[in-house]
Design brief:
Layout: H1 3-19, E1 23-25, E2 32-34, H2 36-53, E3 59-62, E4 66-68, H3 69-74, H4 77-80, E5 87-91, H5 95-106, E6 115-122, H6 130-135, E7 145-154, E8 167-177, H7 179-198, E9 205-208, H8 215-227, E10 231-236, E11 245-254, H9 256-261, E12 272-279, H10 280-291, H11 300-307
Parallel strand pairs: 3-7
Antiparallel strand pairs: 1-2, 4-6, 5-6, 7-8, 8-12, 9-10, 10-11, 11-12
Helix pairs in contact: 2-10
Organism: Azospirillum thiophilum
Protein name: Aminoacyl-transfer RNA synthetases class-II family profile domain-containing protein
Length: about 300
């Protein structure tokens, strides 16, 4: 499928979702409202994730979709993904500047001149607030830590592809500990993820992947990431069989975040981290694609699994 055909397929599925009332357009590509049926599927899938991972004893953390700007800067996200970052600005002018703002607004001109960066940015991934939070607690216990986190996330990549939203939800389990503890966690979830999604009767495959690093150096980082098999994705066809969509990801960060925030294991070593991430909207879109827009007509085993 060439790029034109892919774009046509993406637009067609988006239009079908809008026509069915599952997505509500806002006039901005990648920014949608969701219907009650769409949200019901997300909630039922979220409960399924909990059934698979909830017995592991993860500590639950829930953060808003905004991140302390200092944490964001310390994360080095801008070094790798400046094109995806979203900052939050606010008006900081005086009355004269306000009058100028109103005039420019009335004239249809750019009114953002006196906007300045605030102390918060949009959360790019659900796991980002977790690492500095854990670091502040001091050395890890011997068994390490397991965190369950859920958040809206923002990435600036407007697209007609309904599976590539600018604001979307991620559920993650994050393992922090020794290299052996972290690798064992990822291997466990590679098997769990495949089994869990197979139970939903969707076609899938798991493949090695890489992040969309920015710039010339990004190609080298991507190649290294693939060669070391640090990232795997569970792929499901949504708008294309040739290029299926990543709906789950399994990431081993090695000691990257341990070094950034000085997270230490019980014996004083630098902690390793890994996470499994569930793209909530993408999973819902995959289920609607393969089982239809009427959830009452989905296969009985799938309905029983999700609704009991």
């Amino acid at each position: 499928m060439n790029m034109l055909d892919a774009a046509a397929a993406q637009a067609a599925y988006r239009d079908e979702l809008v026509e069915a009332g599952l997505l509500i357009p806002t006039g901005v590509d990648g920014l949608y409202g969701r219907s009650g049926s769409f949200e019901e599927v997300v909630e039922r899938f979220d409960a399924l994730v909990t059934r698979w991972g909830g017995r592991d004893g993860a500590e639950v953390m829930r953060f808003p979709p905004a991140l302390n700007r200092r944490y964001f800067e310390e994360s080095e996200y801008l070094k790798s993904f400046p094109h995806l970052a979203g900052t939050i600005h606010s008006f900081a002018g005086d009355e004269k500047a306000h009058r100028s703002l109103l005039r420019r607004l009335e004239e249809g001109q750019d009114w953002t001149e006196d906007q300045v960066a605030t102390d918060v940015v949009m959360t790019p991934a659900a796991c980002y607030p977790v690492y500095p939070t854990v670091a502040r607690r001091g050395p890890l216990p011997g068994e390490g830590r397991l965190i369950d986190v859920f958040s809206y996330c923002f990435r600036h990549e407007p697209s007609i592809d309904p599976a590539r939203m600018q604001l979307f939800r991620m559920r993650e389990y994050i393992r922090i500990g020794t290299a052996d503890q972290v690798v064992e966690f990822r291997e466990l979830w590679l098997e769990r993820g495949r089994a869990m999604m197979a139970s939903l009767e969707v076609p899938l495959e798991i493949d090695v992947a890489n992040d969309p690093f920015f710039g010339r150096a990004g190609a080298m980082l991507s190649s290294s990431q693939r060669e070391q098999k640090l990232k795997f994705e569970l792929l499901i066809p949504i708008t294309s069989s040739e290029k299926p969509t990543a709906c789950l990801s399994f990431n081993y960060h090695q000691d990257h975040f341990g070094h950034l925030w000085d997270i230490r294991t019980a014996d004083g070593g630098v902690a390793h981290t890994a996470c499994v991430g569930f793209g909530m909207e993408r999973v819902a879109l995959a289920l609607f694609r393969h089982h239809g827009f009427d959830i009452g007509q989905w296969p009985a085993p799938v309905r029983k699994l999700l609704w009991g």
